[in-house]
Specification:
333 residues, alpha/beta, Quinone Oxidoreductase, Chain A, domain 1, Rossmann fold, 2 domains, six-stranded parallel β-sheet, 10 helices, binds NADP nicotinamide-adenine-dinucleotide phosphate
């Protein structure tokens, strides 16, 4: 089959399409003919060996796909051949065929657009899990989302609104702020020209925001931490800025703040099979809710661009250029 193969940890610009053997079907496994696979900021880190987890070489990158089930292992009950599914993978998504265990394969409801369902995968899953399970966000609370027009950022804007929060979307341009507003942000902050800390405080009546969702890190994390209200929560999601921030503990003490990490991979693909099985009821219930919200228009996933597999490098360039809004996808068929 055709796939992108990572033979050594190296810059993503070296990756090319190759003919590789089909993946083996694991126990409790599902084989999927891939229609779409998504690209994220993290893909570039994984292939260069700079991510928190390194797949064994050689490997096919790509951690989420939408496609049609073509084969199931004995005992699989989550889906059957012919079903359209979303699957979260360890790796192996940039290929014509992908395999994973049934614990992270989610049958698509009738009528859902396949590209929207794919965006609903890691981006909306991360936003939902962080806000609900770690941020315990409540109706009426103020949520500040950084990188609010990016893949997970825009998802957090919409999920925050769906959960009843008043959302402030913060991003690096007027165009990105406009996208955050179109997707439900009540207010926006353009941090390329406005002071994030001062504006966030002003937009929350001087008391500060209740929850921050931060996939960017760096200086923006530092500023946002200082714009949180008493007993507020900081959700640290990623470091797209390139700098992992450090925290002076006294800042937490003075305002009774909680900083919570969230690693979606620990609940789905990038975890031992037993752990995936343990979290399966929780993740399955979450995707039922997310798919229902996509179908009724509460969530409106944005596909920024579609590329054929052969143009993966170009697609990854676009993600890293900071120009994409929403999700960049590869179309396999
Ligand atoms: N914890 C988890 O489970 C989890 C799950 C998914 C993703 N993540 C992480 O979340 C982060 C964002 O992922 P994503 O898929 O949403 O990526 P994305 O679509 O590329 O969005 C990242 C955003 O970060 C901002 N940014 C600031 N400085 C940047 C820089 N130097 N280069 C690129 N972007 C920069 C950009 O917004 P502005 O231009 O508006 O600043 C951009 O929209 C990544 O670090 C990823 O690893 C974590």
């Amino acid at each position: 089959m055709k796939a992108i193969l990572c033979r050594e940890y190296a810059p993503y610009t070296q990756l090319r399409v190759e003919e590789v053997p089909r993946p083996a079907l694991p126990a409790r496994g599902v084989r999927i003919a891939v229609d779409y696979s998504s690209i994220s900021f993290a893909t570039s880190l994984v292939v260069s060996g700079k991510y928190q987890r390194k797949p064994p070489l050689p490997f096919v990158p790509g951690t989420e796909v939408v496609g049609t089930v073509t084969e199931i292992a004995e005992g699989v009950t989550a889906c059957k051949p012919g079903d359209q599914v979303l699957a979260i993978l360890d790796w192996g998504g940039f290929a014509e065929e992908a395999c994973t265990t049934e614990h992270t394969v989610y049958k698509l409801p009738k009528g859902i657009d396949a590209t929207h369902a794919l965006h609903a995968g890691v981006s909306y899953g991360t936003a939902y899990g962080a806000l609900a399970w770690r941020g315990h966000i409540a109706r009426g609370e103020t949520l500040l989302v950084l990188g609010a027009a990016g893949g997970v950022g825009l998802a957090a804007v919409e999920i925050g609104v769906a959960m009843g929060a008043r959302v402030i979307g913060a991003a690096s341009s007027a165009a990105k702020c406009a996208v955050a507003r179109e997707h439900g942000a009540a207010e926006t902050i353009d941090y390329s020209r406005e002071d994030l800390r001062e504006r966030a405080k002003a937009l929350s009546g001087g008391r500060g925001v209740d929850v921050v969702f931060d996939p960017v890190g760096g200086d923006l994390f530092d500023a946002a931490l200082r714009a949180i209200a008493m007993e507020g929560r900081m959700l640290t999601i990623g470091y797209a800025s390139g700098r992992i921030p450090s925290i002076a503990a006294n800042i937490l003490l003075v305002k009774d703040l909680t900083v919570a990490g969230f690693n979606f991979g620990a609940y789905v693909g990038w975890s031992p099979v037993d752990e995936r099985a343990r979290f399966e009821p929780q993740t399955r219930a979450m995707y039922e809710r997310i798919f229902a919200w996509v179908l009724d228009g509460t969530l409106r996933p944005v596909v920024s661009d579609l590329f054929p597999l052969e143009r993966y490098v170009e697609a990854q360039d676009l993600v890293l250029s900071r120009k994409s809004m929403g999700k960049v996808l590869l179309k396999l068929r």
